[in-house]
């Protein structure tokens, strides 16, 4: 579904954040992109979502294709309409708006009846979000905010959902709820997922295939179970010695 080919990305025309990255996310799969702070993971997601220009970032070579058609160069809105939706790192909710208003923002490209159906779907998936629907989102716990952020993305009815560090800073129980939801969206609705994580253990349990990025380059990729068994991955990413 998504294919990045030899992507090179610069910030401020000078800082090379992504170097010659090629990566595939087949339809119906969950693919993980792993790496430490500053490795280039968020930059790749921003390139796919079309928002790099907001930070003076630029794709200087390579291509991004969705179902074989060029994606780079489309506006962020057009990219959402093509079915590619990102849940940004830190969630980026509209903190002064209610939970339901945040969710409705995610359905901005859709009709009123589609939005109503979307809300029901999100509330069925996350009953906790339904309970809190009238509350100001800025006062929710981190885990609740992450559920709202995922719900808001689902309101756009994506075919490819990109999640940037969904487990960051959350309690284990909430992380489990969120990852169960991601897995069931993939299994039951066939949603394709690109998952960016620093928690390699969690990501390699969830995804079928993984890519490891260091200093802007993919240094290793393979089926998740092969990566889990790899000595370097165990030492540097899974904390085994
Ligand atoms: P993190 O988990 O910390 O977000 P990451 O793997 O997502 O890490 P990126 O945020 O993509 O990494 O950053 C990749 C490189 O690009 C880093 O060297 C970072 O300092 C640089 N970078 C990121 N955003 C900008 C920006 N807006 N302007 C200049 N350089 C940036």
Automatic annotation (TrEMBL):
Domain ABC transporter: 2-240
CDD domains documented for this protein: ABC_TM1139_LivF_branched
Keyword Nucleotide-binding among UniProt keywords: yes
Gene Ontology biological process: L-amino acid transport
Keywords: Amino-acid transport, ATP-binding, Nucleotide-binding, Transport
Classification via Gene3D superfamilies: P-loop containing nucleotide triphosphate hydrolases
Recorded GO MF terms: ATP binding; ATP hydrolysis activity; branched-chain amino acid transmembrane transporter activity
Keyword Disulfide bond: no
The family this protein is said to belong to: Belongs to the ABC transporter superfamily.
Name of the featured protein: ABC transporter ATP-binding protein
């Amino acid at each position: 579904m998504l294919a990045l080919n030899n992507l090179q990305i610069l910030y401020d025309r000078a800082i090379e954040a992504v170097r010659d990255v090629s990566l595939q996310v087949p339809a119906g799969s969950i693919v993980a992109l792993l790496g430490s702070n500053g490795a280039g993971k968020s930059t790749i997601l921003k390139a796919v979502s079309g928002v790099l220009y907001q930070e003076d970032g630029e794709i200087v070579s390579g291509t991004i294709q969705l179902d074989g058609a060029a994606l780079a160069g489309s506006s962020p809105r057009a990219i959402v309409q093509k079915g590619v939706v990102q849940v940004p790192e830190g969630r980026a909710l509209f903190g002064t708006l209610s939970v339901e208003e945040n969710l409705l923002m995610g359905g901005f490209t859709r009709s009123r009846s589609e939005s109503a159906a979307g809300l029901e779907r999100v509330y069925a998936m996350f009953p906790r979000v339904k309970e809190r629907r009238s509350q100001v989102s800025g006062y929710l716990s981190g885990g609740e905010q992450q559920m709202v952020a995922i719900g808001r993305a689902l309101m756009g009815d994506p075919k490819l959902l990109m999640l940037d560090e969904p487990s960051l800073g959350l309690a284990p129980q909430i992380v489990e709820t969120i990852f169960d939801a991601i897995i069931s969206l993939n299994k039951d609705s066939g949603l394709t997922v690109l998952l960016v994580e620093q928690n390699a253990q969690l990501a390699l349990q969830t995804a079928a295939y993984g890519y490891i990025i260091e200093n802007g380059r993919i240094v290793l990729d393979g089926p998740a179970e092969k990566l889990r068994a790899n000595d370097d991955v165990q030492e540097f990413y899974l904390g085994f010695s």
